[in-house]
Amino acid sequence: MQKPRFTRFDLIAIDDQEYRFHSQNHDSVLFERLDVSGAIESFSYDQILTLKSSRSWSYQRDYFRNPNTSSEAGRTLSRLASLKTSVLAKVTFRENYCQVVRELHSAGVLKLREDSLEPNRPMIQIEVNERETARQTIGKKLRGGDELPNRKLPCSRTILEHYREWRDAGYSIEALIPKTSTGKVDRKYIDIEKEEFLRKCVAHHASAGKRLPMARTIEHTFEKFDEENERRESLGLRPLGTVSRSTIVRRIQAMDPFYVTFQREGAEAARRQFSSSSGGLQTLAPMERIEIDDWYCDVRSLLADLSMTTAIPANLLEQIPKGNRWVCCAIDTATRCILGLRIAKAPSAAEALRLLSMVVSDKSDIARQLGCEKNWPQHGGICDIATDSHSGFQSDVFRAAISTLHGTKLTLPLGKSELRSSIERVFGSMVTGVIPFLPGRTGSNPQDRGDYDSDKHAVLDDNDLLYILIHWVVDHYHYAPHRGLGGDCPAGRWEKLTKERFVPECPDAFEKRTALGVPLERTLQKRGLEICGNFYRSDETVCHFKETLSPTLNIRLDPDDIGAVSVEINNRWFEARCEHGDLDGVSLEEWKAEHELILQRYKDVELLNRKTRRSAIAAIKARCDQAIAKRLIPGSTTDNTAGIDAVQNQLFHGRSYEPLPETVSFNGAGGPFGTPISPDPSTVPAAEQTTELTIEDESKTSEDDAIDWPDGPSSSGWNLEDE
């Protein structure tokens, strides 16, 4: 059994009782209650597993790490998740030119001064334009005359300010978010002369051979400012004034840490502290570092979803378009286990999010549905995500999703594949271990292919290719000796490390949906939020409908599970469930396909009855296990905003299902109209009984009949309110 790992910053809620992690061992986990000081409760790992499978479990990672954590209802996720598309694109553009300045400064091309940055602005603009074009045209084929999404650089002073903010924040993209909704930032500048003098004073902190504490450097800076002001007054010049203590601290923290260590402790200490091997960082725990990349598969396949190619005549088989698919893969570097695998038409933001969803999910049901002999349970909460800089994983929404899931995005330099050696080695293993046995292989180059006719031998479709690759990963790769693990197999190393160091807890369904779901906008109605014929509501949406004048809300929908959605209300996220409560585990693609069959019979009916809905849900769940693997191949029209909006407008426009009935009872205090007036018991024969007025049981209605409401009072007894 996989044992989760918690930290002191995590918030756990069980049946609305909030806990903070205290400690854990190999047998149990201790949680500290927040409402009673010092109260500790113990939970075994079996109990936690049972709670996680129910809806009484809630987990918020790094909740207490954020100093701005609020006690209000709802969750505050990453700041990037709530930004508008235009603002998010601007923040990403700022990070791009900050990265370019950092690379040029590291290479010694420029210095972090305006006079050094200004002559290099054309070079910076060209490099930023190339990165912006590559990032925003992912999966697109540019043609002559196409408009390129390039932006103009700000002035050199603004670039340096953004760079220093980005650097001081540990190279976090959130430091580049505009301070106001208009994108304008109100800053108070220090004049250039004072800034230069302050820089010289702060440089005393990195004196050679000295390890001065920060307090001594601050005191030294104040003394130098006092001496300079006295000298200027004696000469009749304008004094410099002074600076605050916090300003000096920020300037010390902004100094190059490598240079400070080099000056204070020597070259060897600096090299030992900041150097890294060409193979990347060494990881010790599962899910500590995940490498993600995509690979243009060396196999020509049929670009169609075919169930049996042997039944298709040869002349028709030759007319089916053929091409190469992309294989998107994620690997855990500590154990070399594959955490996700997808087949894609081209790298895109949607495919990147779906792959990230596999990383944080148990994939045993996929392996079981495809007939694998082994399970695929490797998953957990993310930490560091390493990708290259020119792939589908550089989109704005992917960056925001990683930040929302409490991960860190690591963009490695282009052309240095040794920094992503684990994922590159997996693709190499596919090339040597499975691709040579497949028909239609193209080889990695023309010399490798020779005179082999790839198109003539192409007979595999997307389902076949996915089936082969997942079988190879689950049944062969995970249990084959790995040289990088000292002869151990990836599955064995995963089991060993999970027992020693545990695995970061994966996000719950709400957080996963909010981070990785498809963004939508819907108008709040009386019944709730309508999505593809279903209405979603919660207590928060009901209150918001009464109070707001503009009920258009942002929504996140998981296309693989449409039982609930995430709704943003006043910058807080809440869960809204389907009013019928019967769509848990049902995918939007399956719901769409079944609704198309229903409309063939009831094409003129706008409000379909509940019995028809129950039959549709039963049919979907009967074949759910057969459709799991189809979610991993291209062809879905419901994994993006435009596709879902098109399905709603074309297939579900003007059609929905009748709401659940509410039982109306007039039985004393429980009734809505007060206490019923009953006849004197002494005057009523014992055989007569008072009958409550209720809506007829839905199971007694036929498929095409409406609900049969009682026309009048019962003959055996009735209440005054019945009239």
Automatic annotation (TrEMBL):
InterPro entries referenced in this protein's UniProt entry, alphabetically: RNaseH-like_sf (IPR012337), RNaseH_sf (IPR036397)
Segments of skewed composition (Polar residues): 713-723
Ranges where the record places region Disordered: 664-723
Record GO terms (molecular function): nucleic acid binding
Source superkingdom: Bacteria
What Gene3D superfamilies is this protein classified in?
A: Ribonuclease H-like superfamily/Ribonuclease H
Its transmembrane ranges are none
Q: What is this protein called?
A: Transposase, putative
Which lineage do the record's taxonomy fields give for this organism?
Bacteria, Pseudomonadati, Pseudomonadota, Alphaproteobacteria, Rhodobacterales
